[in-house]
């Protein structure tokens, strides 16, 4: 089991900055990829960014160039630095951790943190 706790959400004006953090605990040695997803009411949860154990990052087209994902394995954290925020970025953001591979892959989720971009 992996337990994830997010922090850092809130209200920010368009064009502003916000940083989300996620701390992992439990069976952290089994974690490979970590990432951030977001979900609006009635919609499918979508990938925002993910980062491999080797530090390779992948981004959704909608956030590439504005968001930066990073991980600190010594502190068991993954962070999402968000810049040039837009109202369309308003959503609930979820931290994700993956263990295993192939048919043995498991996904763990945090409780979610609300990000609201509004003037």
List the helices and strands and how they pair.
Layout: E1 2-7, E2 10-12, E3 18-26, E4 31-39, E5 46-51, E6 57-59, E7 67-72, E8 77-82, E9 91-99, E10 106-109, E11 113-117
Parallel strand pairs: 2-11
Antiparallel strand pairs: 1-3, 3-8, 4-5, 4-9, 5-6, 7-8, 9-10, 9-11
Instruction: Point out poorly predicted stretches.
Output: none
Order of helices and strands: EEEEEEEEEEE
What sort of overall outline do the alpha carbons produce when their principal axes are compared? globular
Radius of gyration: 14 Å
Largest sheet: 7 strands, mixed
Helix and strand composition category: mainly beta
- Through-space gap between termini: 40 Å
Could you tell me the number of beta strands? Answer: 11
Helix content estimate: under 10%
Query: What is the mean pLDDT?
Result: 95
Strand content: over 45%
Please report the number of helical segments. Answer: 0
């Amino acid at each position: 089991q992996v337990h994830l706790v997010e922090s850092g959400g809130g209200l920010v004006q368009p064009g502003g900055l916000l940083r989300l953090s996620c701390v992992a605990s439990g069976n952290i040695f089994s974690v490979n990829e970590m990432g951030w997803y977001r979900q609006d009411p009635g919609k499918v949860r979508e990938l925002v960014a993910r980062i491999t154990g080797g530090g390779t990052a992948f981004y959704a087209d909608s956030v590439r160039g504005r968001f930066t994902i990073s991980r600190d394995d010594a502190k068991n954290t993954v962070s999402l630095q968000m810049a040039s925020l837009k109202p369309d970025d308003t959503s609930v953001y979820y931290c994700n951790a993956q263990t295993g591979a192939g048919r043995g892959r498991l996904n763990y989720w945090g409780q979610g943190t609300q990000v609201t971009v509004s003037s």
